[in-house]
């Protein structure tokens, strides 16, 4: 009977006995792939790009312009003299030309506000980075809570599994004793009630553990339960 109980225990815990929770630092690192963290990271990256743009905004005070032309230019003229009748002459020549120029336009309000704009954008970058770290700390806190809960539930499930195996064994023995007439039906009913309670407690623990592990998988972006 003890050997049978051992086999039953292995069967009951088949889906959970091989579960090994990854180290917390692995879960923390994988959690950076979560949408909450990535969204905060993207926001910080956008603010850094805007800071770089503000630092280059001084270039907006200057402008360059230029043009280039190429083509055939024609010249038409009329010549006459007292002794010569008027006659028309026409000539063409290929020509090219270009112009280059530069300009400076400095709005005083933008010039005096340039340093302040850069400072404000630096603060925006810092704010976005702090928001990202706050989100990350919240994620790590949730991971720690679910990790501790799952660790505790694994131990409780093992205890309730052993209790269920024992209850099954006691009920099997009581069935044989009842068949042999050594116990009454009310005693058999008591053993059955204990078995049912042990089964219910085991199933509840299994449900709670499964829920905790699935939540941990979602938060940490890490597969834990073997499919």
Automatic annotation (TrEMBL):
<dbReference type="GO" id="GO:0009279">
    <property type="term" value="C:cell outer membrane"/>
</dbReference>
<dbReference type="GO" id="GO:0015562">
    <property type="term" value="F:efflux transmembrane transporter activity"/>
</dbReference>
<dbReference type="GO" id="GO:0015288">
    <property type="term" value="F:porin activity"/>
</dbReference>
<dbReference type="InterPro" id="IPR003423">
    <property type="entry name" value="OMP_efflux"/>
</dbReference>
<dbReference type="GO" id="GO:1990281">
    <property type="term" value="C:efflux pump complex"/>
</dbReference>
<keyword id="KW-0998">Cell outer membrane</keyword>
<comment type="similarity">
    <text>Belongs to the outer membrane factor (OMF) (TC 1.B.17) family.</text>
</comment>
<keyword id="KW-0812">Transmembrane</keyword>
<keyword id="KW-1134">Transmembrane beta strand</keyword>
<dbReference type="Pfam" id="PF02321">
    <property type="entry name" value="OEP"/>
</dbReference>
<keyword id="KW-0813">Transport</keyword>
<protein>
    <recommendedName>
        <fullName>Outer membrane efflux protein</fullName>
    </recommendedName>
</protein>
<dbReference type="InterPro" id="IPR051906">
    <property type="entry name" value="TolC-like"/>
</dbReference>
<keyword id="KW-0472">Membrane</keyword>
């Amino acid at each position: 009977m003890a050997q049978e109980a051992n086999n039953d225990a292995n069967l009951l815990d088949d889906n959970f006995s091989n579960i090994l929770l990854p180290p917390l630092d692995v879960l923390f690192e994988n959690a950076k792939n979560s949408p909450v963290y990535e969204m905060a990271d993207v926001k910080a990256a956008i603010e850094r790009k805007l800071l770089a743009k503000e630092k280059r905004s001084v270039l907006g005070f200057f402008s360059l312009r230029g043009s280039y032309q190429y083509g055939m230019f024609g010249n038409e003229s009329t010549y006459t003299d007292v002794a010569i009748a008027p006659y028309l002459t026409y000539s063409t020549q290929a020509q090219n030309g270009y112009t280059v120029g530069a300009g400076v336009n400095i709005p005083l309000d933008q010039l005096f506000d340039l340093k302040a704009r850069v400072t404000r954008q630096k603060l925006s970058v810092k704010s976005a980075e702090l928001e990202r770290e706050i989100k990350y700390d919240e994620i790590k806190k949730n991971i720690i809570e679910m990790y501790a809960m799952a660790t505790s539930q694994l131990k409780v499930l093992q205890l309730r599994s052993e209790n269920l195996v024992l209850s099954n064994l006691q009920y099997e023995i009581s069935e044989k004793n009842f068949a042999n007439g050594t116990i009454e039906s009310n005693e058999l009913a008591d053993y059955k009630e204990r078995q049912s309670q042990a089964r219910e407690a085991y199933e509840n623990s299994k449900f709670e553990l499964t829920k905790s592990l699935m939540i941990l998988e979602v938060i940490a972006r890490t597969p834990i339960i073997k499919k």
